[in-house]
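B., you asked whether I could sanity-check this one before it goes into the benchmark set. Here's the sequence:
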Amino acid sequence: MRADEGYMKTVGAVEKALNILNRFSQQKPEWSLAELARELELSKPTILRLLNTLEKYGYVSRNRVTRKYRLGMRLFDLVGIVLSQIEVRAVALPVMREIMGKVDEAVYLNVISGEERVCIEFLDCSHTIKASVNIGQRSPLYVGASALVLLAFQKERDREKLINGLELKPFTDSTITSKQKLRQRLEEIRRKGYAVSWGERNAGLVSLSVPVFDRHAEVAASLSIGLPDARAEPEKLDLCVKLLLEGGKAISRQMGCRIDDVH
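And here's what the prediction gave me:
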């Protein structure tokens, strides 16, 4: 067997379920059980089990009048997540370039995915020694300024749910490992409007971050600067905070947020 064959293996039941979803279109938005069975050349009991599962999780629903199946609202939710991430990245990029041009340090944009922070955009700087963040890089929500900002500005109920699900493992000696201290830190971040972390995920690196809000005044992303602690002089950190706060507000306004609505 070739080394890549295992990678290419798929799960049959998932594949069949996705094939059902892929049959829906603008031209044919509804399908009956019999039609799907004929189209996919599968038995009605098999199709019915797959439809029942998709319906349970909101990926399809059944028209009470026609008794046919159509796409469910869960897909609308997922589309909204994708669109919001595309939108915030497109809006943030010019602001990120402006900030990077003024401080010549790494600038990056992050969102929440599940219980993690994910980087969705990164601008490099000219220095040899620098903060390096890969697009797609993930980290727990309690580690570093970028993640802490995303957690701090969640709605209280959502924030507590996320905190309760966290297992606080240390990355460095500076990592928060107490939920009581984490809650205190998050309250401080909400009060100040930004976060600064010193070596909490990577020793020797400093990160600063501010929230970006969407049109519903909910946190959509965190805008961040990362730099080595050797260049983290007070004057430079003050400039970074100033630029991030201005940039976060500018992006939020372009996302449709009225800053006065943010609590």
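One thing to flag: The longest helix spans residues 73-103. Otherwise nothing jumped out at me.
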